[in-house]
């Protein structure tokens, strides 16, 4: 019986290691980092609604989600952007970042006195850009 328990424990540990489980990107309180997951690249409903308003105002048509979550320092928000475009071009990203932050400040009343951080996730859920524009 003791040998069987050891085999089960080793098997479970191996499965956890092989599955890629990690706490990387999690905050100290244990909440996972925002953004798409392996099982879903859909934007949360509030993020999709914000992106729809952004697109209707003339924003990037590939953006289908914009989330604003408190940043790790509490003063600068993290903007999580979901896009259908797999483009990693830096110049395009900078235009997109300027467009999103202009929309948020002018149309949504968001203030960014200490800057912001932005993560852009592509159609497969992979991170395309990470930007720190904090003061």
Features:
135 residues, alpha+beta, four-stranded mixed β-sheet, 3 helices, 4 strands
Please characterize this protein's 3D structure.
- There is one protein chain.
- This protein has 135 residues and is an alpha+beta fold.
- It is 35% helix and 21% strand.
- The protein has 3 helices and 4 strands; from the N terminus they run ααββαββ.
- The protein has helices at 2-18, 45-56, 90-107, and strands at 63-69, 78-83, 115-121, 127-134.
- It has a 4-stranded mixed sheet with strand order 1-2-3-4.
- β2 (78-83), α3 (90-107) and β3 (115-121) form a beta-alpha-beta unit.
- The radius of gyration is 19 Å and the shape is globular.
- Mean pLDDT is 77; it is low at 1-32.
Helices, strands, pairings?
Layout: H1 2-18, H2 45-56, E1 63-69, E2 78-83, H3 90-107, E3 115-121, E4 127-134
Parallel strand pairs: 2-3
Antiparallel strand pairs: 1-2, 3-4
Annotation, overall tally of beta strands: 4
% residues in beta strands: 15-25%
Shape type = globular
Distance between the termini: 61 Å
């Amino acid at each position: 019986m003791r040998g069987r328990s050891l085999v089960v424990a080793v098997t479970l540990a191996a499965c956890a290691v092989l599955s890629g489980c990690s706490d990387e990107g999690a905050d100290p309180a244990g909440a996972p980092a925002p953004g798409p997951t392996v099982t879903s690249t859909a934007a949360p409903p509030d993020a999709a609604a914000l992106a729809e308003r952004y697109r209707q105002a003339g924003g990037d048509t590939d953006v289908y989600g914009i989330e604003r979550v408190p940043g790790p320092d509490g003063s600068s928000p993290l903007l999580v952007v979901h896009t259908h475009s797999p483009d990693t071009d830096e110049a395009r990203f900078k235009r997109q970042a300027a467009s999103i932050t202009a929309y948020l400040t002018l149309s949504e009343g968001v203030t960014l006195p200490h800057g912001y951080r932005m993560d852009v996730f592509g159609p497969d859920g992979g991170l395309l850009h990470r930007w720190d524009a904090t003061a």
